Structure formats: structure tokens, C-alpha cells
Amino acid sequence: MALYEHVFLARQDVSSQQVEALVEQYKGVIEANGGKVGRIEHWGLKSLTYRINKNRKAHYALMDIDAPAPAVKEMERQMRFNEDILRFMTVSVEAHEEGPSAMLQKRDRDDRPRGGDRDRGDRDRGDRGDRGDRGDRGPRRPREDRE
To answer: Would you tell me how many other CB atoms lie within 10 Å of the CB of residue 2?
Structure first.
């Protein structure tokens, strides 16, 4: 059987429990067709880069799948009919990653306090001193002298 990573986006107005129910529904489709679902991750409600069907946010979910291609095709066919699913993508992989995905690692990294947070007034001005952006060029000439 082939290995796949499958990510889908669900509408922003469905609850987390409904997203979990969708995951279980599609997990059942895979298992009914002779496959297995490994890791399941809920990435939560995230902002979209652009609106999709009038939605500015979506619930993201990841599933690691070990199944024959017809099982994945059947799951994708059923997702096309579901109005709660905005987008989905299935990618064939050589091996599933161990541990949390990059998205969950990013969330863990974002939760930590950031080092080096300073007010803008604390910025190091380097060798410019108080000259600002003009550097050593001096002031501009009056407008009528310029061409």
C-alpha cells in the first residue's frame, strides 16, 4: 500500500467537534476500503491568505494514510460533495514523519517568549548616529535647483 499525507480545510463556522467527526468519517472510508490512518493532527482555526467561499478562516486537519489508491480516491470523491470542506490536498510520501508535524512545531515555537523583544526606541542606530536615513549626503538642494 502507498503512504499519503492528507490535509483538509473545513469551514470556519463548524465546531471543533464537527471537524473531529469529519476526520472520523473519512477515517472510516479509508478503513472500509482496506487502508489505515495513522497520525491525526488538528492544527486549529487559522486565517486564510485569501477568502475561499466567503470564509476568511478555516479549521486545518492532517491525516497520515497508509492505503491503496482507490481508497484515497473514494475519500476525495466524498469530500468534494461535503459543503463543510473548503479545500483538500493529498500528497504521496516515501515515509511518514515521526513526531509532530512542522505546523505543530511552529505553534510550540510561537508559544515561547521571544528573546530580544525591545521597544523601537532601544534600537541600535549603528554608525549613523542621529543623522537618520540621509547618511553623509547632507540636506537636499532647493527644488528649483534640481532638474
So the answer is: 13
Question: Exposed, middle or buried: residue 6 (CB in 10 Å: 0-12, 13-18, 19+)?
Answer: buried
- Here the cell at position 23 is 476526520
Length of the chain in residues, anyone? 147
pLDDT digits (tens, 9 = 90+) for 7-60: 999 999 999 999 999 999 999 999 999 999 998 999 989 999 999 999 999 999
CA distances for 33 relative to 1, 61, 65, 67, 71, angstroms: 12, 21, 12, 8, 5
Write the CATH number of the domain with boundaries 2-95.
Answer: 3.30.70.60
The phi and psi torsions of 98 (rounded to 5 degrees) equal -90, 145
Q: Where are the domains of the chain?
A: 2-95
Please tell me the pTM assigned to this model. 0.69
Exposed / middle / buried, residue 85 (Cβ in 10 Å: 0-12, 13-18, 19+) = buried
Distances (CA, A) of 107 to 10, 24, 35: 19, 24, 30
Contact at 8 Å (CB) between 86 and 10? yes
* Calpha distance 88→62 (Å, rounded): 10
